[in-house]
Specification:
With 236 residues, the chain is an all-alpha fold. It is built from 9 helices and no strands. The chain is 81% helix and 0% strand. Helix 1 crosses helix 4, helix 6 crosses helix 9 and helix 7 runs antiparallel to helix 8.
C-alpha cells in the first residue's frame, strides 16, 4: 500500500527516512498528550475541591464528556482550514478535558493496578504499532471490520447500561481490547503511508502529525480503559 503522491520522485531510502521522521513526530505529539492527560487526571484526583466540583456534579461531568466529543469533531472537521498553532491548541485542549474526566478511574481502581495496567497497555500498544509500521502486509482490509467492531462496542455498551451485567461487561471489554489492538496496527500503517513526502517542516506537515497523534492517542486510551476494566483491582 502506498498512497504517497510524491513517491515516484523519491528513492525508497528517502521515503523510508521521511516516514521515520514523520512517525517520530506523530508519536512525540501523542506521548506529550498522554503525559498531559495523566498529570491532569492525577491532579484532579488528589485535589478534593476539584474532584468534588467536577466528579460530584453529574451534569457537569456529562457536559465535559460532551465537550470532548465536540473538540474531536471540531479538530477533525476543521483542521484543514485552521493554523498549525490552533490545531495544536485544540489537540492539547482535548487531552486536558480527557484527563479531567479520566480522573474518575483513581476513585474506582487502586493506584497500583492503574499503573500495571498502563504498563501492559503500553507494551501491547508498542508491539502492535511496531507491527503496523514494519509489516509488509497491507492492513487496509482490517479497516471496515474494525470500525464495525467499534460501532458494535458502542451499541453493546449502551445495552449493558440497562442490563448491568458484569459478565457481559467482561465480554465487551475483552472484545474491545482485541479491536483496539487491531486498530493500533491498522492506524499506524495508514498514518505512515498517508504522509506526504516533500512537505516536511510546513504547517500541513505539522497538522498531519497532530491528526495522526490524535488517532493513536484515542487508540491507546481505549485500549487502556478496556484493559483496566478487565484487569484493574477495584477499590473496596
Amino acid at each position: 500500500m502506498q498512497n504517497n503522491q510524491y513517491s515516484p520522485y523519491y528513492s525508497q531510502e528517502a521515503i523510508q527516512a521521511e516516514q521515520a521522521r514523520y512517525m517520530t513526530k506523530v508519536f512525540g505529539w501523542m506521548s506529550a498528550a498522554l503525559i498531559v492527560t495523566g498529570i491532569v487526571a492525577f491532579l484532579v484526583a488528589i485535589t478534593p475541591v476539584l474532584a468534588e466540583t467536577i466528579l460530584g456534579n453529574r451534569i457537569l461531568f456529562y457536559v465535559m464528556l460532551g465537550a470532548e466529543f465536540g473538540v474531536v469533531w471540531w479538530l477533525s472537521s476543521r483542521v484543514a482550514t485552521m493554523s498549525a498553532t490552533a490545531a495544536t491548541v485544540w489537540f492539547f485542549l482535548y487531552s486536558i478535558l480527557n484527563g479531567i474526566t479520566l480522573s474518575v478511574i483513581f476513585f474506582i481502581f487502586t493506584a497500583d493496578s492503574i499503573f500495571y495496567v498502563f504498563m501492559i497497555a503500553a507494551s501491547m500498544f508498542m508491539a502492535m504499532a511496531a507491527y503496523g509500521y514494519y509489516t509488509k502486509k497491507d492492513l487496509t482490509s482490517w479497516g471496515s471490520l474494525l470500525m464495525m467492531g467499534v460501532i458494535g462496542l458502542i451499541v453493546a455498551g449502551i445495552v449493558n447500561i440497562f442490563m448491568k451485567s458484569d459478565m457481559f461487561g467482561m465480554v465487551i471489554s475483552s472484545i474491545g481490547v482485541l479491536i483496539f489492538v487491531g486498530l493500533t496496527a491498522y492506524d499506524t500503517q495508514k498514518i505512515k503511508e498517508m504522509n506526504i513526502i516533500g512537505n516536511e517542516g510546513t504547517d500541513d506537515d505539522h497538522k498531519e502529525a497532530i491528526m495522526g497523534a490524535l488517532t493513536l492517542y484515542l487508540d491507546f486510551i481505549n485500549l487502556f480503559l478496556y484493559l483496566l476494566r478487565l484487569l484493574g483491582n477495584r477499590r473496596n
